[in-house]
């Protein structure tokens, strides 16, 4: 039996001012878009903001439903909106922020498995990794490519 160790690569940022101006700006958009979240059940409001080729910004917020499987995460809301409205534009940056009880979370949240798979599909379509920014009050993670969060991805290619 062989033991294989997979490591992830990310940058931990204590202050978003350490990021590029474009990355800092898109985190602010992700925080703002949490206001568009519909989360009456969990009270957990998530905002996602994308930067597409050409500087186009697409926003998404989680949308809950009393029939729980019918809701949708912020990340997929934004990614599907981008695909429907800008099918020929690659996603360059994805920023995610979350708040609950009127306060942004201290630690960054990570997309669920379904969202990670959709991010992977977007990377495969574009042929390039997406910069993923996971924002929390105490720190922000900058991750180059979803493979750092989804090391055993499902792919047909």
What would you note in describing this structure?
This protein is of the alpha+beta class and 157 residues long. 25% of the residues lie in helices and 25% in strands. It contains three helices and seven strands. Strands 1, 2, 3, 4, 5, 6 and 7 form a seven-stranded mixed β-sheet that branches. A hairpin with a 4-residue loop joins strand 6 and strand 7 (140-144). The longest helix is centred in the last third of the chain and has 14 residues, at 113-126. It is globular and about 45 Å long. The chain starts with 10 loop residues before the first strand and ends in a 13-residue tail after the last strand. The model has no long low-confidence stretch (mean pLDDT 95).
Give the topology, please.
Blueprint: E1 11-13, H1 21-33, E2 44-52, E3 57-61, H2 74-85, E4 91-100, E5 103-104, H3 113-126, E6 131-135, E7 140-144
Parallel strand pairs: 4-6
Antiparallel strand pairs: 1-7, 2-3, 2-4, 4-5, 6-7
How much of the polypeptide forms β-strand, as a percent range?
15-25%
Counting DSSP E segments of at least 2 residues, the number of strands comes to 7
Summarize the helix and strand pattern as letters: EHEEHEEHEE
Task: Catalogue the unreliable spans.
Answer: none
The helix content is 10-25%
The SS-based structural class is alpha+beta
Radius of gyration: 15 Å
Q: What does the largest sheet look like?
A: 7 strands, mixed
Overall pLDDT: 95
What is the number of helical segments per DSSP (H or I, 4+ residues)? Answer: 3
What general outline do the C-alpha atoms trace? globular
């Amino acid at each position: 039996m062989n033991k294989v160790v997979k490591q992830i690569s990310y940058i931990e940022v204590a202050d978003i001012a350490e990021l590029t101006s474009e990355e800092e700006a898109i985190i602010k958009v992700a925080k703002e878009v949490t206001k568009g979240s519909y989360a009456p059940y969990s009270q957990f409001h998530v905002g996602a903001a994308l930067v597409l080729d050409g500087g186009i910004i697409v926003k998404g917020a989680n949308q809950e439903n009393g029939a729980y499987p019918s809701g949708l995460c912020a990340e997929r809301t934004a990614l599907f909106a981008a695909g429907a409205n800008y099918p020929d534009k690659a996603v360059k940056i994805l920023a995610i922020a979350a708040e609950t009880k009127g306060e942004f979370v201290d630690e960054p949240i990570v997309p669920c498995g379904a969202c990670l798979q959709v991010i992977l599909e977007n990377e495969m379509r574009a042929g390039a990794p997406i910069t993923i920014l996971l924002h929390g009050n105490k720190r922000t993670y900058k991750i180059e490519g979803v493979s750092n969060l989804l090391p055993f991805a499902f792919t047909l290619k």
